[in-house]
Design a protein that fits this description.
The chain is α/β, with parallel strands linked by helices. The chain contains 22 helices and 27 strands. β26 and β27 form a beta hairpin. α3 runs antiparallel to α4.
Length: 729
């Protein structure tokens, strides 16, 4: 068995198509929304996975709940808007907006019920570790004395209890707003009225109670509020109460010809805050009168209401991931510093001059990207810096380095994307900070998001100018870079430097580049290049030459690309896809996609890098393969409505590192892999936890953490990866 065959043994055999299946119909695609929900079920499964440390399981449950909230505020909100406007546009699998909403509603309700089941199981497991979540009934007199003081000093000043009557109308509840609704009775004359207690998001959801050393005790905030109603409504008694939480439409519209894009986005952010309610969650035992009041005031219908028998706002349980219980979390991992940079005493430009350098984050530190810009800011020979910014951290060291460079008199141009969803306000703040420092800030296009990850540094070296370029698959965000797997390519190759300059000129001056040498960009040339490369692989197969495609990304739903993959597979090309999240491909169906295999890796790190490898008539892995890294998933938004990059790797060492190490390890992963079948089911077959067979499963995340010698070792091939994998215990 050759290396390529070995890497394919984990994929299932083809299945016959369903009865009546038409391979030319929309049935050949999976629905995007249901595929996303399937991904979130896989995330939730990690919250129930006994192989995962307990507090990491808590974190996975919080992530699944957060993901579902965002799904409703963006995707469901969009489908509802299509439905209300009478737009009957069909999804790629042939479903109308209302048909998709019905499917989503059923599946999401099941998912939310499973969230509650998972939380109950985690509460039991936490108690076994002396971490307790209490109710009011569990409080001792000492607890109540502590909480009386806590409430008055740390909660009461933040609250605004509201009576609801003609003089006090129902207030606006913002997106993700959490409230208590009350029916209270005046003790003096038994007069009843309705009241509302909005809960500020700035208050911790879980209140720590005094406990013996090694023990942790928490009371949910809503339990404290219900226990302290007398302080909020003196002279009244609560007769009925319920909690509710609101999610609103968070998509944004911007005027096409906005004269001041920053000001327009500030207005749009305020509109987002007041978006229509897309989901109302409230406690299952809510009083009918209170329920009717809330629904009427928020203008929601029954289908938009979720009754929750358990904890509302499951995303908040991330507060229970305690710094003091590192024993219940993943072991601490410290990213490596590349040896070549150390060999050059930290001079990253010298390391790049030696040869192109590829870093695999988070296994190799993202600090090298920060250092690249910090060194440029302080280097007197650096003349200019250009940088795209899509998402970054609040106190971004990237932005700080750009500001330092501008203040030092260097020419600094920052391309800030204001349309980065949920980061718009942060990006407005960063752009103003850059402008104050003297940088030139460009906001790109109104119709296209600038999602490409590019940074260039122009340096005077003797009598010439040298351009150092960084291309990334992930954001310039040092915090998410600790948990996202991504690639960073550093190069001083003149062709790539020229390509980057042409892209920046396109962003700043609208001038479409007439010639790109080793780069393709969307919305201009990236999709045609992909289709051309896939078609070429099909031609190799028809000619009897080895034909193979390996691709890794977050999402794949573009119908043209999927059809091209189907055609290549039918021609005989073998196609292996590692798709973390949304996937519209129906793999493994005889006559349509028997040569296509799809897997999803969900584990300690969030798989985020975008890679595609073409055997180019030689199969994979091969030194003659064509290898690309990209900022783009294969979705119509990335290929048609964003500025993205597809960078061809020319350096032999870097190419081998991507194909023979990174992709080989991902394809060989067993411990974190879910396999997609032609019916849309993701499955994984794991042995009993703790068994010898369980420990022998290859885990690509653990593999890269534990094998620093692979970093930059182009000579380490796929066979080496496989042998090392079988050497693990």
């Amino acid at each position: 068995m050759n290396q390529s065959d070995f890497l394919h043994t984990a994929f299932p055999a083809p299945i016959d198509p369903p009865e009546g299946f038409d391979p030319a119909s929309p049935e050949r695609f999976f629905n995007r929304e249901m595929s996303w929900l399937a991904f979130n079920w896989r995330v939730l499964d990690e919250a129930l996975n006994p192989r995962v440390p307990l507090l990491e399981r808590v974190r996975f449950l919080s992530i699944s709940a957060t993901n579902l909230d965002e799904f409703y505020t963006v995707r469901v909100a969009g489908l509802r808007e299509l439905q209300r406007s009478g737009n009957a546009r069909l999804s790629i699998d042939g479903r109308s907006p209302i048909e998709q909403l019905e499917l989503i509603n059923e599946n999401a309700r099941q998912l939310m019920a499973r969230h509650q089941d998972a939380f109950g199981a985690l509460v039991t497991a936490l108690e076994a570790e002396d971490i307790h979540i209490l109710s009011r009934a569990d409080l001792s007199p000492q607890d109540r004395a502590f909480l009386d003081d806590y409430f008055l000093s740390r909660v009461f000043p933040m609250l605004s209890p509201l009576a609801i009557d003609p003089a006090h109308p129902f207030p606006f509840i913002p997106n993700a707003g959490f409230c208590l609704a009350l029916q209270i009775e005046r003790r003096a004359d038994k007069f009843r009225r309705n009241a509302l207690l909005p809960v500020p998001q700035q208050i911790d959801r879980f209140i720590p109670l005094p406990a013996e050393r090694g023990c942790h005790r928490f009371l949910p905030l809503e339990e404290l509020l219900l226990d302290q109603l007398q302080a909020l409504f003196p002279g009244y008694t609560a007769r009925n109460s319920c909690a509710f939480r609101v999610l609103r439409d968070s998509d944004m519209e911007v005027e096409e010809e906005a004269e001041d894009l920053v000001r327009e986005f500030e207005v749009a952010l305020k509109r987002r805050r007041r978006g229509e309610v897309v989901r109302l969650k409230l406690t299952a035992d809510a009083n009918p009168e209170l329920r009717a009041l809330i629904m009427d005031e928020l203008e929601v219908i029954a289908d938009e209401v979720i009754e929750v028998d358990g904890l509302l706002g499951m995303a908040d349980i991330k507060e229970l991931v305690l710094d003091s219980r590192r024993d219940l979390q993943w072991p601490v991992f410290t990213p490596r510093i590349p040896e070549r940079v150390q060999d050059h005493e930290g001079d990253i430009f010298a390391a790049i001059r030696q040869k192109d350098m590829l870093l695999h984050h988070p296994y190799e530190t993202f600090d090298m990207v920060v250092r690249f810009l910090e060194q440029a800011a302080r280097d007197p020979d650096v003349l200019a810096i250009k940088q795209t910014l899509y998402r970054t951290s609040r106190d971004s060291p990237i932005v700080a380095a750009l500001c330092e460079a501008a203040e030092a008199g260097k020419s600094v141009t920052a391309f800030v994307e204001l349309k980065a969803r949920f980061d718009e306000a942060a990006n407005i703040r960063q752009s103003r900070r850059l402008e104050r420092a003297g940088a030139h800030v460009v906001y790109g296009f109104i119709h296209y998001k600038t999602h490409a990850k590019i940074s260039t540094v122009v340096r005077r070296e003797g009598d010439r100018l040298v351009t150092y370029t960084h291309f990334g698959t992930g954001n310039y965000h040092p915090i998410t870079a600790r948990i996202y797997t991504d690639l960073s390519l550093f190069t001083c190759d003149p062709a790539l430097g020229r390509d980057a300059a042409r892209v920046f000129n396109y962003l700043s001056g609208y001038a479409e580049p007439e010639m790109l040498e080793n780069l393709a960009i969307s919305p201009l040339s990236l999709k045609p290049r992909l289709l051309e490369l896939i078609a070429a692989e099909a031609e190799h197969a028809r000619a009897g030459r080895p034909a193979e495609i390996w691709a890794k990304m977050n999402s794949l739903v573009d119908p043209d690309v999927i059809d091209a993959l189907y055609a290549a597979g039918q021609a005989g090309a073998r196609i292996s896809l590692v798709i973390r999240g949304i996937c519209g491909v129906r793999p493994g169906i005889r006559g349509l996609s028997e040569n296509i295999r799809v897997k999803s890796i969900v584990g300690r790190f969030l798989e985020h890098s975008r890679i595609v490898c073409f055997g180019s008539g030689h199969g994979l892995p091969s030194a003659k393969a064509r290898v690309f890294m990209s900022s783009a998933d294969w979705m119509d938004r990335n290929l048609l409505r964003r500025v993205e990059t597809l960078v061809e790797i020319q350096n032999k060492t870097v190419k081998a590192q991507i194909v023979q190490q990174i992709m080989a390890a991902n394809l060989h992963d067993e411990a974190q892999t879910w396999v997609l079948d032609g019916n849309g089911r993701f499955t994984r077959d794991l042995p009993e936890p703790g068994s010898g067979e369980d420990r022998s499963l290859f885990n690509c995340h653990r593999f890269f953490m534990e094998n620093p010698s692979l970093s930059g070792r182009g000579s380490a091939g796929a066979r080496d990866v496989i042998e090392l994998a079988h050497g693990e215990d």
